[in-house]
Amino acid sequence: MTHTVEIALLIAAVGIVGIFIFMALFYLMIIALDKYLPYKEEKVDTESENRE
Amino acid sequence: MGIEQLLPAIAGMTWQHLVMIAVGGVLIYLAIAKEYEPTLLLPMGFGAILVNIPLSSALTQIDPSTGKAVEGVLNVFFEAGIATEIFPLLIFIAIGAMIDFSPLFRNPSLLLFGAAAQFGIFMTMLLATFLGYDIREAASIGIIGAADGPTSIVVASRFAPDLLGPISVAAYSYMALVPIIQPPVIRLLTTKKERLIRMTGHNNKKISKKALIAFPIVITIAAGIIAPSSLALIGFLMFGNLIRECGVLNKLSMSAQNELSSLVTILLGITIASTMTAERFIRLDTLAIIALGLFAFVFDTFGGVIFAKFLNLFRKEGNKINPMVGACGISAFPMSARVIHQMGQKEDPYNYLLMPAISANVGGQIGSVVAGGIILTLVPLLA
Description:
The complex is a heterodimer of chains A (52) and B (383). Chain A is mainly alpha-helical and 52 residues long. Helices cover 77% and strands 0% of the residues of chain A. Chain A has helices at 3-36, 46-51. The termini of chain A are far apart. Chain B has a two-stranded antiparallel ribbon. The longest helix of chain B has 29 residues, at 284-312. Chain B has 383 residues and is an all-alpha fold. Chain B starts with a helix and ends with a helix. Chain B has one domain (3-382). Classes of the chains: A mainly alpha (52), B mainly alpha (383).
């Protein structure tokens, strides 16, 4: 096995693990954003509408 | 007066130039008749013709009377837009403005397929080193598997500018050929029973505007802290997305999605063609790169499908993932999602895989950029 192939193997191993770590982190961020910034129905100002 | 003086272009024409002009014609044909990525393949095809007519003023030439170089416009564009990475990064702003990340919020676990389906990049890089390419060239060839043209251009222009032409042609051609490449690989790796799996999820869940605005900012900060080298790629993508989601820059968002995208795409396509000269393109390397590109796409699909099957080992009946959805973890959006949805409908007309497929496909758009950033970080660090 040449030195280049060894480096390629190392980059492949670190790269694949790295992508999964990144994506897992993004996954956790999405979960956190969804939890702490949940969707809320926009309140319609019915009082002012009735006054009009 | 001989023909050399009267028509120097004809006198300087070789069979290699003629082959390249034919290649340009084929790219234009594929763009117009088959509608294969016409926005890129048409400018590249026309550019290939433009740069393969001997003494073309579109390229830098030496003036025989003065001995000085007369700069060609395509070389100027190349130095200004590709060598500096400005064109692909501007495209990222446009792509960011086009992406709706809400499907990821509905099915966040499918984001992981955006990682699994980058498998082809690294397998191809390994294979390329076995074939004798150095690590920088191998990484540039492998990144074809990102199925993401601008990422391929950024990586190749930095690590192997000489291979930029064939890498770009391979990347964009295979992106257009996803409906032909993916189905047979998926059928080979899955059983009929697996292809019939129905997926239920929170397909109609509403996502808060605040979360969608915070997402690109949070991702940029996180990516920047972990891998600052990836920040140009991810940051520009997320900047485009922030313009889209903020709600106060609708005009800029539309401009990024339309005018910016169109203008830069025209310049990008024709400028890449400046590297498609006969001397640089007609080599065994080109055929090898095109073959390796196909290998990358096949192994991306393999990675996504096999990862889905692996996850299914730990999931209960009724909550399993249709392994075909794993194949959508590539960046070719929305083509891959559409292909998988159609494959699912062919097996069972009542199986609607579009929403999970889109979620995985959006994950692939992020995954390909992350993969590009990781390659840009690791290669100089370890090579």
